Structure formats: structure tokens, C-alpha cells
Amino acid sequence: MTTSTITLYHNPQSRSAGTRILLEAVGAEYTVEPVDFASGQNRTPEFLAVNPLGKLPTLVHGEAVLTEQIAIVIYLADRFPQAGLAPAIDDPLRGPYLRWLAFYAGCFEPAVLDRAYKREPIEASASPYRDYDTVIDTLAAQLARADYLLGDRLTAADLHWGNALKWTTGFGIVPMRPVFMDYIARVDAHPACVRARELDAALLADMAPPPASSAG
Known about the structure:
It is built from 8 helices and 4 strands, in the order βαβαββαααααα.
């Protein structure tokens, strides 16, 4: 395995929080390049040369640049197979694993953003996710089957979904159904989630502006 450096462009108050969890979970050695939105660091020419959208997460591994959440989840879980967080290509669970990752990107996130911004729904037959309620009910039904998306086995998909549901229920975009809250609690207790929270708390403290000095 290559020892190329992994760099995560990161702000703990962004989608890159989930990527840090995955990096901790797979045991990767990585460095963090903090991105301060308040000062516009995500719009500098240097950062836009890496990710023209100016968005996080952005991850660089050697010559590979990855910019989409689900691409990063798949990449890291496959790149570090010793972590056991992704079904192998010939595993019967590989298809469902990819399904629920794609469901996040193609259905869940567009649905919750449309709901959050109060966008008028389009005709269900033309919508890529049908409608918000169907997306939420479909996810809830799957999580009611077992502890994790694929049964008793936690995968990288769960680490991603658990973090996403923690954020979206916290903001009131997704209802706090017991099935969601129990799932969030199970995933959030994973050592990688605990470690990432600790690291991000320290990073936020470092990124905070110094207190204004008072005149004597």
C-alpha cells in the first residue's frame, strides 16, 4: 500500500466532519488543512485550484483528489480494507451497501435540502427522490430491520449515515423518530466518532478568533 500523504481540507462545522470520522475509523495517517469560512479560505485561488466548487469535504491522497462525500466514503473504505468497513466486491452485501450510499446522495440529501429551504415539490414522477415523506419512511423502514443498514454489521455507510442523521435531526430537518435516534446513538458511540469529536473540538478552539482586548 502506498504511503502517500492524505490531506483533509476540513472545517468541523461542515460535511467534512463525516470524512474525519471515516479517516479515524480506517486508521489512516492524515493531515488536516483547516478551512475557515468566515475569512473566505474556501474561496481563495489556492483552494479553488483543488476544488473549483469551493466546497468541503475535499481530500487529497497522493495525486488523487476526491471532492464528493460518497466518493470519499467508498474510496477510504476500499483503500483500507483491513478496517473491515466495506463488503468486498463479491460479497452479497456489496450491492445493498452501494445502494444505501447512493440513496443518501441521490435521494436523502436533495430531499432534506428542499425541505429545509421550503422549495415547492415537483411532480413525484419527475423527482429524482419521489417525495420527502417517502424518502424518510424508506430509510426508517430499513433501520427498523436491524441495528445497522446491512444488519448486525457496521460499515462505512453507517458511519456516514449516523453523522448525517445526527446533523439533520439536530437542525429539525428530519423528524426525531425513535428509530433514527437509537441508530444515531449506536453509531455515535463508535470509537472513531468519539475520537473525531475530540479532535474537532480542539480544532474549533484553535480556529476561534482571539477575544477582543479590553481597554485598561
